[in-house]
Write a structure and sequence with these properties.
Length: 190
Amino acid sequence: MSSEELEAMRALANPVRVRIYEVLAQEGPMTVTSLVERVGTRSGSVSYHLKILLRHGYVEDAVDAGRDRRERWFRARSGGLRLSGRELADRDRDESTRSAALNAMLGEHLAHVTRWMRDWHKWPPEWLEASRAADTFLQMTPEELAHFSQDLDALIRRWTERVSDAVAAEPGHAERRTVFILTHAYPETR
């Protein structure tokens, strides 16, 4: 892992940064002021964390979103947050950074799942029928897991493009909701 990749991983090792990314990914472009309200921290802290996320390409300026040039708007870069096996496998690098990044992301994942478990019954039947929660255990080799992960990434990229095109064609569609898709694929530890 290069020093740049390690620094990018360190950017994800902070729960506030992961939360900022998640809010921008779910709700679209925002200003620091809007993020302060959603994330629940001070504006100086949000600005500091945004600079780090910007530097590592997790967020970008959303110049087209602002109505007033005095306000700076930010958006999440598409593709979601992910840590590759290659990044995790580099044993010569800081294990505490890798663990902190995984824990920060897991904290947000658990928050999403907890909200769903709390509120699932409030959704209309068509959303409940379309939703899924599943797990599967497969006997795989490292090569098979790598191919599976690549196929899964390709599927998510295709759907990201498909949905982005649909949103562009029909902005503000009444039935559109943010859908959280969570994937983890790793060898089971007993």
